[in-house]
Amino acid sequence: MEILIPLIVIALIVVFVIGLYNRLITLRQRVREAWSDIDVQLKRRHDLIPNLVATVQGYAAHEKGVFENVTKARAAAVAGQNGTPQERAVAENQLTAALRTVFAVAENYPQLQAVQEFKDLSENLAATEDKIAFARRFYNGNVRDYNTALQTVPTNILAGMFGFTPEQYFELADATEREVPKVSFG
């Protein structure tokens, strides 16, 4: 009986540690899954942009600088796909700002706004922006849960022992960047 009680205590501690470890793994996987969701939507956005630019460019050929800025911002966003959430947010914010200028140019061309391809691309891009916003919220919620678990007792002790590190939020630096690009059909 004297040996049984310490064995039960040790077994309970081992089960407790395994439970905490598995919880941290689950939370980390949720963060990775949420990041993957952002990647999917950003890829969709990056794929839509060249078609949108080409459509608008045909009607507003003299707005060459606008299209070059969008192309550069898209290239920077695509090139930064392996960056941290903060680095990705900066690149995506620049792309969002460049897209706003394309829509501003498009508003000056009523005949462009009547083209079905432009309407479809604009609607797809607006829907994608909504999905990106949802994916960001989902990701940040998972990061919050994971980071909270890393900082609470006794999980913080176990997290440090097993090398779990906090994740970064996918944040926008400028309040104006929080707005979805406006799509106007006249």
* CATH second-level architecture: Up-down Bundle
Shape: rod-shaped
Q: Helical content, roughly? A: over 70%
Beta-strand content bin: under 5%
Number of helices: 6
Q: What does the radius of gyration come to? A: 23 Å
SS class: mainly alpha
Total strands? 0
Termini separation comes to: 84 Å
**How many structural units, i.e. domains?**
1
Average pLDDT confidence is 86
State the CATH class. Answer: Mainly Alpha
Q: Could you describe the largest sheet, including whether it forms a barrel?
A: none
Q: What is the chains' assembly state?
A: single chain
Give the topology string: H per helix, E per strand.
Answer: HHHHHH
* CATH homology group: LemA-like domain
> What is CATH's topology name?
de novo design (two linked rop proteins)
Structural overview:
76% of the residues lie in helices and 0% in strands. The termini are far apart. The protein has helices at residues 4-59, 64-79, 85-107, 110-113, 116-151, 155-161. The mean pLDDT is 86. It is mostly helical and 186 residues long. It contains 6 helices and no strands.
Topology:
Elements (H helix, E strand, L loop, with lengths): L3 H56 L4 H16 L5 H23 L2 H4 L2 H36 L3 H7 L25
